[in-house]
Amino acid sequence: MKTPPPLRIGDLVIDPPILQAPMAGFTNAAFREIVRGFGGAGLLATEMVNARGFVWLDEHEAEHPDRLWGVAEEARPLAVQIWDNDPETMAKVGRRLAEEYRVSVVDINFGCPVRQVTEKAHSGSYLLREPKRMHAIISQLVKACAPTPVTAKIRLGCSPESVNCNEVAQVVEEAGAAALTVHGRTAKDMFRGNADWDRISEIKSHLRNIPLIGNGDLDSAEKVVAAFENYDVDGVMIARACLGKPWLFAQAAAALRGEPIPPDPTMQQQRDVMLNHYKLVVDRFGEEKGTVLMRKYACCYAQGKHGARFFRMHVAKVSSAEEFYAVVDEYFPVIDNRERVMS
């Protein structure tokens, strides 16, 4: 295939046009450092930040949210995703992110399907049923953040019976957003079934100038290539699949350049990556909290490997560095399945 051109979000050039999705509880500074070390991601993103919570912390002179850990110092480009349903609150936080933190992109979460965000806070994907409010949020953020570009991430709709992504896409562009990312499921679907890339692709004809970024089920370099070959998108966003494979971006970038896809690291190398990740988390949060936080990451690194179930069962209980290292030494596989077959 022909190598896709760089993605342009306002004046920002994203090359390669492969984005790392913002994922609550996962895409913190430690994870981003691991991804950045492998390369291949054109734009990295933080976890989504609760705008109202940010304002409260600021007013009470408390430390800024943990989800902004590392943002001020780390390499650019970097996007910060925020959520709430109040235009003024969102604009206030967006201005701080643009002026004080000097982030590359401020992204708005209109796609989160979690009940705590939707039904309790009337935010995230809940707002897909209120395009006028979406317009107000985006337009105020655009003014507050200028010249930093503002983008939006949505789902196809709130449910399969109320798909309105084409209408919402037009609202997003009219309000001044610089790009649109679409996850190919509805909020009701959560992560069940398959992402509908045909629906994502159809949205492109409803946009005049801003780029369309597709998201959903991209778990291999081959699927990233296929997304560009088969669908009308300007960029792609990789989400859950990268949590246990932070080298996936580098593999996808090579494939888009028409180069051989680099093999996965050996099991020993993957183990070393995980241990480095653990050290970064503990350095920031301390041994006790860092070890507990690392449990979910460790489970991701083991996913799909021989003996993963036993490793997950034991690592889910660790609460100290000593316990963590002992479980890794005993249960994390160091020989991959192909080597087992050959032996």
From TrEMBL:
<feature type="binding site">
    <location>
        <begin position="22"/>
        <end position="24"/>
    </location>
    <ligand>
        <name>FMN</name>
    </ligand>
</feature>
<feature type="domain" description="DUS-like FMN-binding">
    <location>
        <begin position="20"/>
        <end position="329"/>
    </location>
</feature>
<feature type="binding site">
    <location>
        <position position="183"/>
    </location>
    <ligand>
        <name>FMN</name>
    </ligand>
</feature>
<feature type="binding site">
    <location>
        <begin position="239"/>
        <end position="240"/>
    </location>
    <ligand>
        <name>FMN</name>
    </ligand>
</feature>
<dbReference type="InterPro" id="IPR013785">
    <property type="entry name" value="Aldolase_TIM"/>
</dbReference>
<dbReference type="Pfam" id="PF01207">
    <property type="entry name" value="Dus"/>
</dbReference>
<dbReference type="GO" id="GO:0000049">
    <property type="term" value="F:tRNA binding"/>
</dbReference>
<keyword id="KW-0521">NADP</keyword>
<feature type="binding site">
    <location>
        <position position="153"/>
    </location>
    <ligand>
        <name>FMN</name>
    </ligand>
</feature>
<dbReference type="GO" id="GO:0050660">
    <property type="term" value="F:flavin adenine dinucleotide binding"/>
</dbReference>
<dbReference type="GO" id="GO:0017150">
    <property type="term" value="F:tRNA dihydrouridine synthase activity"/>
</dbReference>
<protein>
    <recommendedName>
        <fullName>tRNA-dihydrouridine synthase</fullName>
        <ecNumber>1.3.1.-</ecNumber>
    </recommendedName>
</protein>
<dbReference type="InterPro" id="IPR024036">
    <property type="entry name" value="tRNA-dHydroUridine_Synthase_C"/>
</dbReference>
<feature type="binding site">
    <location>
        <position position="81"/>
    </location>
    <ligand>
        <name>FMN</name>
    </ligand>
</feature>
<comment type="function">
    <text>Catalyzes the synthesis of 5,6-dihydrouridine (D), a modified base found in the D-loop of most tRNAs, via the reduction of the C5-C6 double bond in target uridines.</text>
</comment>
<keyword id="KW-0560">Oxidoreductase</keyword>
<keyword id="KW-0694">RNA-binding</keyword>
<comment type="similarity">
    <text>Belongs to the dus family.</text>
</comment>
<keyword id="KW-0288">FMN</keyword>
<dbReference type="InterPro" id="IPR035587">
    <property type="entry name" value="DUS-like_FMN-bd"/>
</dbReference>
<keyword id="KW-0819">tRNA processing</keyword>
<dbReference type="InterPro" id="IPR004652">
    <property type="entry name" value="DusB-like"/>
</dbReference>
<dbReference type="InterPro" id="IPR018517">
    <property type="entry name" value="tRNA_hU_synthase_CS"/>
</dbReference>
<feature type="active site" description="Proton donor">
    <location>
        <position position="112"/>
    </location>
</feature>
<dbReference type="InterPro" id="IPR001269">
    <property type="entry name" value="DUS_fam"/>
</dbReference>
<keyword id="KW-0820">tRNA-binding</keyword>
<keyword id="KW-0547">Nucleotide-binding</keyword>
<keyword id="KW-0285">Flavoprotein</keyword>
